[in-house]
Amino acid sequence: MPIFFDVYWFVACTLTSSCSDAFPLVYRILVLVFVLLVVGIIVWIIVSNWQRIELTVTIIAVASDALSRNLGLFLVIPLLTVGLVIYYAPIVVFLVFARFNGKIVAKESNGEYTCVWKQDSWVPAYYTLAILTMLWSLTAMVEAQVYVISGTIAQWYFSKDDSKPKRSTRSSLRNAFGPSSGTVCLSGLLICAVRLVRAAVDSAREEDVPGIVNLVLRCCVNALLSAIDFLNKFTINFAAITGEAYCTSARMTYELLKRNLLSAVFVETVSTRLLAGVIFVLSSVYAIVVCAILHGVSDLGVNAYIVAVLAWVLLIIVLGFFVHVLDNVIDTVYICYAIDRDRGEVYKQEVHEVYVHLPISRNSRSSFPTRTFGV
């Protein structure tokens, strides 16, 4: 696509007198060569890392197979989102009506008196509490979705036969909003706190406060927040698999990731970037096709581009949802494989045949506590 648009622009600008007058031939050739050079560098990066890409595609294929055996997740996850919206409805209504709590008071300005509306003193505090509650509920619901996905996939992984366990999604939902609700809420609280602190750090960076101490503090805070984000992500997966409490899952997950840190980073970053690239390419191609069809069969004019952009955004949202679920499945299968490997067992041979090619850390000593994990 970049090569096509680059050549198309070069030819169109050469044939158009106004464009050719504004951009001399030398500048057009420089732009053409520069874009081709950038594309060449990208192709070289892809070719030099082709083995990693092939491994990532295979990992995605394994995760897709696991997801295909648990298609009920595509119904449960949107229903959880709908439930969150319903939960938000009374909070928003109370926020609207909270504005009407107050009284009319007289205000003097330059010897003239005017009537103004003064809200009660508790209204700003209620607004703050309600907004923080909504943010915490949002992150908790996201963690609950991850818990349900991980619990469902783990039950499929640790089943002895190839058949899907009965009521696996229902049991994961019952655990997420029952015995493990505290774990889910605590995880959501940590994620909410991390997001708020990161937003404050980004706001301070925009203010451009000078000083080396401020720069060092920002770097330390960002590193700490990234570490909490990374550890918490796999902690909720581990808690969904084992049913352990949050702190116990965090400690045991740390021991697990300490031996497989390179593998975890590889699974998380490469697969996510590859899936994001696939989403962008498919959405762009779809938008171009929609725009071409609208120009061919209708006279919408400029509105055709608006419809194409809307189609592009809509497809990105839909595919983003699928990728969000698939990304959590990839993490869950990786954690299940690590537990399997630590216990010296093989529940899913096809998973071991793929994940055994992942790079592992140098510290291969077994420091993970040996125990029987239940789902």
TrEMBL record:
Keyword Transmembrane applies: yes
Keyword annotations: Membrane, Transmembrane, Transmembrane helix
Segments traversing the membrane: 25-47, 73-97, 126-157, 274-298, 304-326
InterPro entries, alphabetized: Choline_transptr-like (IPR007603)
Domain of life of the organism encoding this protein: Eukaryota
Subcellular location field: Cell membrane; Membrane
GO biological process annotation, one example: transmembrane transport
Single GO cellular component term: plasma membrane
Recorded topology in the membrane: Multi-pass membrane protein
GO molecular function: transmembrane transporter activity
Role of this protein: Choline transporter.
Family membership noted in the UniProt record: Belongs to the CTL (choline transporter-like) family.
Protein name as catalogued: Choline transporter-like protein
